[in-house]
Amino acid sequence: MFRPRVIPCLLLRNKGLVKSVKFKDFRYIGDPINAVRIFNAKEADELVFLDINASTENRQLPLDLIEKIGDEAYMPFTVGGGIRSIEDIRALLSVGAEKVAINSCAVENPQFIRQAADIFGSSTIVVSIDAKKKMFGGYEVYTRGGKKSTGADPVKLAIQMAEMGAGEIMINSIERDGTMAGYDIDLIKQVANSVTIPIIACGGMGKLADIAAATREGKASAAAVGSYFVYHGKRRAVLINFPSHDELNSLFEEYQQAA
User: Fold this and answer.
1) Is 130 tagged catalytic?
2) Model-level pTM?
């Protein structure tokens, strides 16, 4: 049975792992290499690492840490944060990353996505879109770690990025981030219905059924998960985990049968 990808999404800050709620209130949760080892043992499909300060601090991702992740990870992984040049991408791929996630630079310089896709191939380029609901309806794209409003519409941006050669779009709801209240299905569906490239849903997963909803109802090809995979219980004790492949297969089988 085909099963959509389920991807732990891990946030880096000062080379440590943190979690956020609505792109703020950051909490340190541990060492990224330890997390990789746990996800290795749990046989996670892929990993995504996003450096949340790289863009606002105008710096590159820490290549020494990315290399350590590459040496440790058994699964493919994507890295993002502060990527603004072909040299940045080449350096990250050279130390083990399989894909790169580009956020701010995709909005500020759309032609960069075309250039990167031409050089490294579309399958290497993920465009990460952070969006927030507008007061009177619709959504708006934010960059620079969710701090800068752009006036851009996420659907129009996704279409443009697909035309530029992006291989995947990761769509993240700022308002759902870290809340564990479920994905913004409407946002995901709008973006997924506008392009033919794969969509990764991100922001808000709070129970396994949310993954099925994002992929079945939202038409996403994959679900990225943060808080649910690092917290346990009402007090949010840190306990990194990942569902077994049998659990995930059963989840999608039950969802398909109910549809």
Assistant:
1) yes
2) 0.94
